[in-house]
Structures are given as C-alpha cells and as structure tokens.
Amino acid sequence: MPVTLQQIAEAAGVSRGTVDRALKDRGRVRPEVAEKIKNIAKEMGYQPSLAGRALVMAKRNLKIGIIMQSAQTPFMVQVYEGMKAAKQEVESLGGTVEIFRVDGVDAGRVMEIMQEMKAQEYSGIALSPSEDTMLKKMINQFSEEYGIPIITFNSDIEDTKRICFVGQNTIQSGRTAAGLMGEITGGKGEVAVISGHISNPALNNRIRGFQSEILESFPGIQLVGTKYSYDDEWVAAKIVEELLEQYPDLKGIYVTGTAVKGVCEALVKQEKEREIKVIGNDFLDENKKWVERGAINFLIGQDSYMQGYEPVMMLFHLLFDDEKPESVYRYAEIVIKNRYNL
C-alpha cells in the first residue's frame, strides 16, 4: 500500500500540511525540519502519485479563480509572478486556475467577476478586496450560501466570512514605519502621510498603525493629515508641492503605497530630498533607486511572491485534500532596508 502524507506526518511529529510543504520545497518549514521529513519519506518509500491526483482532479472539475485589483501597480506585478507559478503547479495536476486582473480599485468589477465565476461553477476564489459594503455581503454570500470558499490576499476585510488572509500585517507595518520616523526625526516636527486609494483596506490599516504609534510613542511629532494620490505619480508630486507650501518646516513623509516616484521627484525639485525624511514600502526597482540616491530613508518590505502563490495553493489543498489553512492569518515577514543593506 502506498505511503501517505499523513503517515509521514505522524512519524515526523508534524502536521500533514508541513509535510506537504517540505516535500515540495514551498517554504515556511525550518530547514532542519524539512530535512528530517524528507529523510523519513525516503526511508518509508514515499512516492507521489501525480498521475492519480491528476485523474481525481479532472473528475472533480476543480476550478480556482483569482481576482487581483490594482493589477497595474509594480507590487502587484510581483504578486502575479507567484500566482503564475501556483497556476502551473495546480494545472499540472489536472486542475484549472484563472487569473482576472483589474486595473485600479473597482469593487463593482470584482463583484461582476465573482458572479461570472459562480455561473461557471468555480470551486474557490482568492481576491484582493477593497472597502465596499456590497462586496462584503457578496463574500459572505459566496461562503455561506453558495459554499464557495474565499481567501483574501494583499488586502483584507476581517469582518467577513473569508477563511484566511495572506499578506502583510499592515497595522504592524504602519507601527513599524512610525517607530522609524520617530527615530530619524528625533521625535519632533510635522509629518505627513501620502496614501493611495482611500478604499484600500491595507493602506488604511497602515495609516491607522502609523497614527496610533506616533500618538502613543512620539508626542512631539505633529501629524498634519493624510493625502490620497490614487496611485498617480503626478498627483503625488502635486501633493508634496502643496504640503511644502503649507508646511515649510515639514520633517517627514510616510508613503503607504505606490507613487513614491512622484513624491521623490517633487522633493528633488524643491531641493528637499535630504532634508525631509521619507519612509516607503516595498523593494521595487524604482523605490530602491530613490533609497540609493538618499531621497528615501527606509523601505518596509513584504513577500510579494508568497502573496500570489499561497492563496492558490491553500485553496487547492482545501478543495482537493480537505486541508484547512493552519491559521486565519498567513502574514508575510516585515523587512526593513536602507541604503546600506539593499
């Protein structure tokens, strides 16, 4: 009789999901644990039955749908790479994965796609949501009434029936940015926040985390408000010009999302790129350039590939193996970089 993953898990004293990740080199397993699992699997004579899994998948007509908003942004382009890898893996086993890309934030379009998926009998959905009452209701309806499991990634709506969120702990990311800002400004002066779309839950959580930590730990910093660029570089540059006119002694800017280029170009134009402290997000080529130049003091990073890969594979294991996510939250590590460790 073939050796099962559950038998290996029992022998290794770990969960079945840990065994699966270790044997497929999918990360999230300590190297020493992964080596132990592989040795046990080899000793037990484990052989993955790919052909058998593909046959079962084909019979089940397993279809996974992915909806990503702000698909045109550089970070989501990186997330897309993880999605494509997971799509290839699932489809090699006989399943189907379709990726729907939505430029900008458009809850109406997301709901249209969800309805199309229901009509085409998709088995599960992963999506990057936005703050929208009707979208929240639809997520709950799909989960409870239609029995279609939903995983959110990159941004989250906690008060819904989604089964799991994959992405950054954005509240903690905002608090991290506040701690850095407090240190590099000496805990004093006027500081502004420039965000992207006002309906983006992830960016709003970063703002909340930043504001709460500033108020709690750095009373000498005056927050002068939050402005929204809607991911437009030109708008971001204009916001900086207006801020500098209104607050000539501005000490810092926290950029929660994209439009870093517009912010930095405006600071360079005003010859303020070294004077005003800037904290941004994500290790994108454009952002790294500005760190190297000295216009950005710190970047706070997250694992983009994981946010594309993990939701697809979590749905696959839930639908095919009846393996539920180990936690409601699958957080990406928060990483801090400056010009010395890029």
Structural overview:
The chain is of the alpha/beta class and 342 residues long. It folds into three domains: 5-44, no CATH class; 50-167 and 304-332, Response regulator (Rossmann fold); 170-301, Rossmann fold, CATH 3.40.50.2300. It is 49% helix and 18% strand. The chain is built from 13 helices and twelve strands. The strands form two sheets. It has a six-stranded parallel β-sheet with strand order 2-1-3-4-5-11, sandwiched between helices. Strands 7-6-8-9-10-12 form a six-stranded mixed β-sheet, with helices on both faces. Pfam families: LacI (PF00356), Peripla_BP_4 (PF13407). This is HTH lacI-type domain-containing protein. Belongs to the bacterial solute-binding protein 2 family. InterPro entries: Bact_Solute-Bind_Prot2 (IPR050555), HTH_LacI (IPR000843), Lambda_DNA-bd_dom_sf (IPR010982), Peripla_BP_I (IPR028082), SBP_2_dom (IPR025997).
CATH class of the largest domain: Alpha Beta
CATH architecture of the largest domain: 3-Layer(aba) Sandwich
Terminal Cα span: 51 Å
Q: Would you tell me the overall average pLDDT?
A: 92
Structural class: alpha/beta
* Full CATH superfamily name of the largest domain: Response regulator
- Which H/E pattern describes the elements? HHHHEHEHEHEEHEHEHEHEHEHEE
Please tell me the total number of domains. 3
**Quaternary structure of the protein:** single chain
Subcellular location: Cell envelope
Family: Belongs to the bacterial solute-binding protein 2 family.
Protein name: HTH lacI-type domain-containing protein
InterPro entries: Bact_Solute-Bind_Prot2, HTH_LacI, Lambda_DNA-bd_dom_sf, Peripla_BP_I, SBP_2_dom
